[in-house]
């Protein structure tokens, strides 16, 4: 009995806010009633007190109906939709000063089960719209997307997310032109205004994105913080060594070997190439030289004999007291020829040095030196095209910069330096011109950035936050970056990743399992218009299920078997609950430009709109 009363009370409170506003007609009828009542007092001798009491009651009901009609009218979506809004950097800066521990996400409202109910009711009302409203429908259809979605709540406010929650990383999904890049503008500008390090990796090289980041630096009178890298404009670009930061030499070999095309993970050419790279890297570290792409290419092409001479000399001199005299004799005996010197030093190491001071890294280089040169050339053939692309023409000086004590190049930088100086680095990859090279550069830079994150994670003290923005992430994502997503929070690195579909991750990583691994490491989602059905389904599956009210029309007829002319019928309505997804997946493909659905802060659902940032 108690349950029945509770259900009746709940059903009684249900109201379709998108029904026609019948209250308007009711107000006119009661107003006529009051007018007639006053007339009866004058012409028909109706008692004045009685007329006043009845008129007052009618007036109170008119006020009640008027308020109810006003409330309903606020929920009626505007047929013309919402025009684009603009916000200048000054207004954004002022807003941030009032909310310094929050991230601003535009304006909108928190989406709840109540809004799902309104959405369903609105769709039902429009499916039953009369012909007289056809003109209004044609006007609405001229507006791009389901513009009425943002009108499901009359009370819209600024949306914020605690900055602490952004350390769980953010994924922005949307088709071309839906608003991903303009969303980047808003988030990047806020990070710059907070005086935090910003790294932007943009495969397609969007000029507006670059200019907006530079504009934000100039706005706070810190134009020197902006750093620009782009293979297509080497004269304006800084130089970055993508092998500058690493914790172990084996990382360098893994980074470059990962760029070798391979159909299977057990490719012998890829494995041999990685081994050869590792041997050269270890030899360079023995002689105290930092690896670079040009250096690795040089020793792979010319052979390891020169490096063998340098490495054995450096190691033997460190451990053998009288090695200088021995080396002088070897030089005379070999007539200063590198190949002969390498052979003599090879023999000297294993006879005199290795028994007392063995070094496995040096022995790997010596083993490669003795390898058959014909077979060696064939095995590293798949590695050479990658190194050749990354060291040819203008890319050579950009990715393998040289700086000496006599000539220090101010344009040489790396991710550790960018982070330490709170710089804003825009890195365009020019993938539209050369997708293969752009993808390779992006992959190497992400690996280098992951190494910096490892240092910060292990040794960092009071690390300042670092904001990493990656547009079209599927073109550059790799295994090290997945590790960065997994462990970047401990290094205070906030990653914001943008893509068009989730299938792009699967295509890049080679498996759907790895794509899900990427998504599993991201806690916040900003969903703009998406057209891919699988991506829509994945997003919808992450929305919770809610219960809504549904009106069921029951119509029945009954014919008597004995009396054919006798018939009975019934008609009624009943209210029942059904379980639906909080936000329908089909509407994800109808979001207007710059409008999004967000899942942030552990499951909070937001419906928001973003403005376009301007200078003035």
From TrEMBL:
Sorted UniProt keywords: Membrane, Transmembrane, Transmembrane helix
TM segment ranges: 44-64
Keyword flag Ribonucleoprotein: no
Residue ranges of domain TraD/TraG TraM recognition site in the record: 465-592
Domain Type IV secretion system coupling protein TraD DNA-binding: 167-332
Pfam families, per the entry: TraG-D_C, TrwB_AAD_bind
NCBIfam families to which the protein is assigned, alphabetical: SXT_TraD
Protein name stated in the entry: Conjugative transfer system coupling protein TraD
Higher taxonomy: Bacteria, Pseudomonadati, Pseudomonadota, Gammaproteobacteria, Enterobacterales
Encoding gene, per UniProt annotation: traD
């Amino acid at each position: 009995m108690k349950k029945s009363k509770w259900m009746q009370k709940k059903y009684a409170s249900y109201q379709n806010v998108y029904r026609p506003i019948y209250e308007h007609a009711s107000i006119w009828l009661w107003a006529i009633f009051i007018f007639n009542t006053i007339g009866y007092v004058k012409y028909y001798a109706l008692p004045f007190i009685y007329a006043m009491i009845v008129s007052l009651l009618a007036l109170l009901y008119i006020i009640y109906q008027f308020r109810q009609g006003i409330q309903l009218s606020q929920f009626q979506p505007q047929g013309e939709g919402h025009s684009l809004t603009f916000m200048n950097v000054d207004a954004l800066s002022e807003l941030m000063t009032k909310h310094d521990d929050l991230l601003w996400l535009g304006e909108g409202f928190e989406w709840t089960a109540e809004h799902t109910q309104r959405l369903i009711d609105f769709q039902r009302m429009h499916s039953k719209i009369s012909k007289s409203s056809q003109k209004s429908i044609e006007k609405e259809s001229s507006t791009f997307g389901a513009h009425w979605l943002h009108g499901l709540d009359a009370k819209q406010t600024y949306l914020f997310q605690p900055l602490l929650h952004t350390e769980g990383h953010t994924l922005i999904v949307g088709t071309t032109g839906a608003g991903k890049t303009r969303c980047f503008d808003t988030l990047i500008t806020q990070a710059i205004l907070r005086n935090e390090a910003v790294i932007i990796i943009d495969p397609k090289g969007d000029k507006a994105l670059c200019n907006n980041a530079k504009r934000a630096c100039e706005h706070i009178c810190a134009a020197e913080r902006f750093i620009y890298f782009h293979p297509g404009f080497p004269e304006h670009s800084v130089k970055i060594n993508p092998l500058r930061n690493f914790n172990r030499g084996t990382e360098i070999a893994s980074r470059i070997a990962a760029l070798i095309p391979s159909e299977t993970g057990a490719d012998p050419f890829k494995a041999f190439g990685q081994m050869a790279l590792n041997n050269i890297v270890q030899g360079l570290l023995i002689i105290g030289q930092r690896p670079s792409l040009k250096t690795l290419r040089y020793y792979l092409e010319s052979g390891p004999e020169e490096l063998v001479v340098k490495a054995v000399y450096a190691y033997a001199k460190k451990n053998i007291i009288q090695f200088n005299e021995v080396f002088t004799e070897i030089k005379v005996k070999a007539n200063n020829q590198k190949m002969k010197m390498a052979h003599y030093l090879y023999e000297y190491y294993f006879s005199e040095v290795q028994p007392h001071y063995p070094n496995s890294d040096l022995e790997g280089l010596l083993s490669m030196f003795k390898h058959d040169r014909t077979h060696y050339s064939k095995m590293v053939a798949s590695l050479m095209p990658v190194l050749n692309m990354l060291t040819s023409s203008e890319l050579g000086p950009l990715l393998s910069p040289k700086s000496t004590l006599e000539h220090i190049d101010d344009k040489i930088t790396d991710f550790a330096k960018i982070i330490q100086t709170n710089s804003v680095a825009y890195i365009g990859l020019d993938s539209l011109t050369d997708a293969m090279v752009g993808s390779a550069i992006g992959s190497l830079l992400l690996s280098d950035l992951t190494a910096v994150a490892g240092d910060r994670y292990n040794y960092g003290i009071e690390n300042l936050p670092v904001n990493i923005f990656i547009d079209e992430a599927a073109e550059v994502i790799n295994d090290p970056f997945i590790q960065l997503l997994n462990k970047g929070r401990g290094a205070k690195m906030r990653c914001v990743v943008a893509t068009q579909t989730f299938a792009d991750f699967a295509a890049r990583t080679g498996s759907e399992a790895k794509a899900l691994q990427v998504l599993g490491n991201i806690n916040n989602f900003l969903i703009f218009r998406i057209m891919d059905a699988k991506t829509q389904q994945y997003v919808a599956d992450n929305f919770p299920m809610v219960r809504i009210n549904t009106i069921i029309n029951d119509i029945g007829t009954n014919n008597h078997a004995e009396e054919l002319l006798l018939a009975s019928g019934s008609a009624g309505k009943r209210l029942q609950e059904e379980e639906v997804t909080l936000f329908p997946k089909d509407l994800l493909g109808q979001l207007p430009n710059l409008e999004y659905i967000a899942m942030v802060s552990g499951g909070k659902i937001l419906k928001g709109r973003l403005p376009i940032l301007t200078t003035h």
